[in-house]
Amino acid sequence: MLDLDWSSIPGALPILAAGMRVTLTITLTAILAGLAWGTLLALARLSGRRLLAWLAAAYVNLFRSIPLVLVILWFYLIVPALLGELGLAHGGDVRLTAALVAFALFEAAYYAEIIRAGIQSVPRRQHEAALALGLTQGQAMRLVILPQALRNMLPLLLTQAIVLFQDSSLVYVIGLADFFGTAYKIGDRDGRLVELLLFAGAVYFILGFGASLLVRRLGKGTS
């Protein structure tokens, strides 16, 4: 039977909180940047311009076919070299910068498909009616189509955000001190790895399960 000792956790809470801030920074940045870039990718795929649609599809298929951990490692190696080539000094932790770029670009591919499906779920007659009222293509998309599409795709967007929050733990491969990485290091240092990993798992479960309940509730409200 395991002899569990949880005494090291209370003293480690400030450090774990700092790790959680890193995790949330990655998650929120990737959501916002991924939504912005993903929306542009979705619109490009639906634009009817063959080259633009092909480039957007190639981007989406590329990132959806590669493990996220590889993308993180690629940008960890590329970002410092790229900044050096441009003659730019990088302040702060380059690992965090690499993680933010990698997650944002990776998640954009998944958000693009969700947004594209959401736009296509809006009846075509809505678009035709907007044009008949004198709106331009851009105004019709911005004022009529996207608001309706957002309501349809909100549960999927939130579900992807939960997956993103969980996947943020993969930054351990570049030594970034996120919540999981911090818990692992403290547990290894204090000889209480099992306890710290169980605690980290419980925190991920509580936050993830709570968010999934919210998604379920919103899904019922939009159905």
What's the short version?
This protein has helices spanning 8-45, 50-64, 68-85, 94-121, 124-132, 137-167, 179-190, 193-222. The protein has 223 residues and is mainly α. It starts with 7 loop residues before the first helix and ends with a helix.
Task: Characterise the protein shown here.
It is built from eight helices and no strands. The mean pLDDT is 87. It is mostly helical and 223 residues long.
Indicate the topology:
Blueprint: H1 8-45, H2 50-64, H3 68-85, H4 94-121, H5 124-132, H6 137-167, H7 179-190, H8 193-222
What is the first-to-last residue Cα distance? 48 Å
Multimeric state: single chain
- Let me know the largest β-sheet: none
Instruction: Report the structural category.
Output: mainly alpha
Instruction: Give the helices and strands as they follow along the chain.
Output: HHHHHHHH
Weakly predicted, low-confidence segments: none
Mean pLDDT: 87
* Helical segment count: 8
Shape: globular
Descriptive labels:
globular, mainly alpha, single chain, about 220 residues, 8 helices
